[in-house]
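Teaching assistant here, posting this on the class forum so everyone can see the example we discussed in section. The complex has two components, and the goal was to see what a joint structure prediction looks like when all of them are supplied at once.
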Amino acid sequence: MELSVNGSKIFCYTGGKAFDAAKPTAIFIHGVLNDHSVWVLQTRYFAHHGWNVLALDLPGHGKSSGDPPVSVEAAADFVLALMEAAALDKAALIGHSFGALVALETAARAPQRVSQLALVGAAYPMKVSPVLLEASQNDPEKAIALVNTFSHATLAPPPSALGPGTWLYGSSRALMRRVLASNPRVNVFHTGFKACDSYAAGDAAMHKVTAPTLFVLGRQDQMTPPKAAQSLVKAAQRGTVAMVPGGHQMMLEAPEAVLAALRDFLTP
Amino acid sequence: MPGYSDPGFDTLALHAGAAPDPATGARAVPIHLSTSFVFESSEHAAALFNLERAGHVYSRISNPTNAVLEQRVSALEGGVGAISTASGQAALHLTIATLMGAGSHIVASTALYGGSQNLLHYTLRRFGIDTTFVKPGDIDGWRAAVRPNTKLFFGETVGNPGLDVLDIATVSAIAHEAGVPLLVDSTLTTPWLLKPLEHGADLVYHSATKFLSGHGTVIAGIVVDGGSFDWAASHAASGKFGELAEPYDGFHNMVFTDESTVGAFLLRARREGLRDFGACLSPHSAWLVLQGIETLGLRMARHIDNTAKVVEFLASHPFVARVGHPLLESHPSHALAQKLLPRGAGSVFSFDLKGSRTQGKAFVDALQVFSHLANVGDCRSLVIHPASTTHFRMSDEALAAGGITQGTIRLSIGLEDPADLLEDLKRALRAAEKAGV
């Protein structure tokens, strides 16, 4: 479905089911240079099991218009505005990587409006190496190659988002290229990395969150290794951790384990 | 497994898609000869059918052995995923039937495998899909052939059998200007020689019967999606790709471009094409192709080395009128091949004997190491006379357009000791000369 948020058209994938105001809603927020499609398996499941699903394309990414958020804080404001546009008092927030920081900051700004918070592949601080920051701006193809290599942990992934026969290195690279090309005005790769790198309020935000919080961490994650989430885990008031066998793109590399973790956590 | 850099070609050829079997520890890929796969529960069954969870249901749609092959070829080509099929022809048909129906139009190269030419020129016309054929090097011709209902451009990396090299970057740019994808048959080059997706092709397919399997044991095909073509954007501009960008009531009203930003084609091809047309690959055949791919790099290097020696020998032989290999400066695609195919332009090529049709037959019959049969890409060296076999349905005019004469001989150079190949050819050329006396 399409929502109008701050004058921008925002695409939200609903998992194959129409939005139903009577159901609880889960908002899925993707990471840098990704879009809604990284969540396709998990979102289809929840859409068919009692939830409204809004898997969004962030502004200026993929099928959504508008300016891409320049900071985690700006992205959190956007998520709250999106909840207004969808007339949602409360929602579960599930974020991946940069999207996890966005979900965290949103939950800190409006703790009473977040029923559950799931942080997938989260780290704080989420520093981006100067080499990668520079490459994301001046040599995006090189940066995509680096990120792609660091984001996958196996040459033999299980059946994934496109079903059996999916080659995740190739699909992740194609998606990053597509999302980068989707915005001819702003380099959303560099903008996203800068937002991750400059976010300085993670621990403080985590202290403010009152909702149950799940950390889904990939054992082989080289982008946001599990140890890099520990300060957030310690700061969480109601935190639990689920370790899954995968790298940073764990929704795609370990779709069943990520689903199981989220399914146990997300009870309407 | 992956570290600081992407795995190389030979590593992927051995490892992509395959981990030791978790149930048994088997290191080689198991052959899963099972039509169906047990559901954990009724809920698991429903979730699999509804694409909420990924897994195997029925081997016409997917199979664990085939999935390894699909991941491996995708890895070697640099694609997002693949679908293995019963043959190369099935891969071509699946691709076309996924993208279009009656009333659609294709622009295709004239230099095609005879089977592909049959499908486009005769059979698909019966189903309302029309094709305009363009010489692969006629760049203006590709552009001029576009019609409002054109849905696809199609060519071979090196056209069969004249080895016209397709200028993939230029032709794909014209296709993209027209809002349609470029499909490339990469059978004769394999990803070891050329990765079409890196040059602008959107979809690549193989007759895996040939070099990928490499041993002349199996019929198989595979189509790889590069994930580069934006079906949704093209459909928004032209309305051409409703099959991918509009709700499909044959599968939960799914909008494939919403489900997957970069894999919509594969979703529909598997969920509709394999389901309904059913040209799936046997897992045993998939395993044979995998076995071949494990040594693809080693074999291709030897194919190419042997070919260079044979081309050099034939080009200097007094009874040979023409050798059609881009290695030679006389070949019209020589410069393009140097650029696109620096490792070599393949080991399948044709040459023309000086002499009559009878002398051509005498040549083929005198060969002892080369096998006279209808295939290419075997580890054994092969020979055939296209005008009387693979291309016999084509008119003289159409043959000429494809660079074939009545005296053309096609060779597929294998992995034998090169000295034995040269000796065999020498003996057969002598026999052909004598047959003319």
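For the discussion questions: Chain B touches chain A through 55 residues (CB under 8 Å). The mean pLDDT of chain B is 94. Think about how each of these relates to the inputs above.
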